[in-house]
Amino acid sequence: GQYNNGIEKIDDWRRNNVNVLVHDLGVAIKKIKPYVKYGISPCGVWDNKENNSAGSDTRGLSAYRELYADGVKWMQEGWIDYINPQIYFPFKNRAAAYEILVDWWQKHTYGRHFYVGHGAYRVTENKIGWTDRSQIPRQVRHLREEHDVEGSIYFSSKSLTDNLVGLQDSMRNDLYRTPALPPTMPWLDSIPPNAPFGLLVKNSANGKMNTLFWQKPDLATDGESAYGYVIYRFNLDEKVNIKDPGKIIFITFDGNKLQYTDDDIKQHQQYKYVVTAIDRMKNESKPSDSRSANEEI
To answer: Which CATH number fits domain 197-292: 2.102.10.10, 3.40.50.300, 2.60.130.10, 2.60.40.10?
Structure first.
């Protein structure tokens, strides 16, 4: 062969070099810190259908063909934990439509996570699709209706901190109004911690806040206790349901923080609370017993 490893075509040789790097870097990272989530953000198009029957119905820059980046292989082989394609295109874009790529990538997750990369830096452009200032919020709502998209990543953070076209506002006030846990990666860690116990809720003398106290859980079978806690609040007559993230009022990533003060309460309104423990990979325990303020145990 003309190139190393008996590879005859230079394109395949280049792709192989990239593959070796992606694989070996992942192995090296996990050896030192097995909990690190290792992922890559390639360009949005893996390959176009006109050149590859397995490709997407697009006519954009091909990561596979022009950049020698075979993201599908990395996912198939389980070398990376997530892929974050840069789908920096609007809906119905002629060369590469947002909705076509979101649909295509969902069919190529192989049990790993697919997060959409959104082009937040493009929101001020006066180009077709981007003149619609609700383009990114619409993209987020769209992916939330899909089955195999685990979330969003935005480029760039400066676009958000600068609040271009009010994007940060709509995130804070609408799209990300309530806290949520990142999705778990069971292939890295599937054992949840044990539940916190001994929950107490004390109402302050002026009735304006409830303070919660709890005990750190015993070690789970993998030797982990708690990396943090999630506090849920319900009305007294509500059923406790920790599957509803709208009931989360606080998440702490400090396993030694064993109290929380809820000062966002309506006077004369009774609430009940439960606390769950999370591990570093955000596996969540069963809930503690539920408690309302000044309830005798």
So the answer is: 2.60.40.10
